[in-house]
Amino acid sequence: MKLILLGPPGAGKGTQCKRIIEKYGMIHMSSGDILRAERKANSDLGQKAQSYMDSGALVPDDLIIDMMIKAIKEAPASGYVLDGFPRTVAQGDGLDAALANAGEKIDAIVNLQVPNEAIISRMTGRRCCPVCGAVYHIENLKPKTEGQCDKGCGELVQRPDDTPEVVANRLKIYDEQTAAVVGYYQEKGNVILDIDANQEIDKVTADVFEKLDALKG
Ligand code: AP5
Fold this sequence. Notes:
Layout: E1 2-6, H1 13-24, E2 27-30, H2 31-40, H3 44-55, H4 61-73, E3 80-83, H5 89-101, E4 108-113, H6 116-124, E5 126-128, E6 135-137, H7 164-178, H8 180-187, E7 192-196, H9 201-216
Parallel strand pairs: 1-3, 1-4, 2-3, 4-7
Antiparallel strand pairs: 5-6
Helix pairs in contact: 1-9, 2-3, 4-5, 6-7
């Protein structure tokens, strides 16, 4: 399967993607994770993306489209889940053009729906492992030992863009530039699987699996 996971910042895209790929054997392609890896490597792209990410703004479309199309071309035949991409209508156009060229298409869009009020506490309480990328929450998904990754990697950290000010800007930008992507795919006739993501993590996963199982038939 080839899926897109849409939803506002903090909707649980990364959390659910990890579970989807475990069950269905695809790979997870997160534009945010790829950008953070580029920053860590201090690459040209990472340097260009830095100021946008730190303020919660979107990295320019041309950089993102090139980066993600390259990753998609290298993906195995088992399929993938795109997380955080496309995030603008221009990115949707770039993705669709590349897929059409390759004779491929997206099977479904999983649309995680959460009100803004629930998102603020999710993001300010998120803790991440800088080594393996595991994501926890200080209340909703606690590590076994406070502040430590369950896989023994060491100390968990807070993402620099998870401060209340930057989160507010990310939500504003989502409403202004990304929310329209759902309508873009609706108009094109793609399958959209709406999920109430304002529920416990395991319940959201169960709902996602139920809809994906029905889709696979
Ligand atoms: P990115 O890393 O993609 O951030 P995001 O979309 O804002 O999403 P997040 O990773 O913050 O949240 P998530 O939905 O994955 O939630 P998670 O599962 O972690 O992008 C970062 C930046 O990179 C952007 O601001 C931009 O600058 C740039 N960028 C990336 N892609 C781009 C693009 N395509 N174009 C331009 N720029 C781009 O969950 C959050 C927390 O909540 C966790 O602690 C989790 O444990 C908890 N949680 C999850 N689900 C639940 C639940 N159901 N109930 C309670 N808690 C929950």
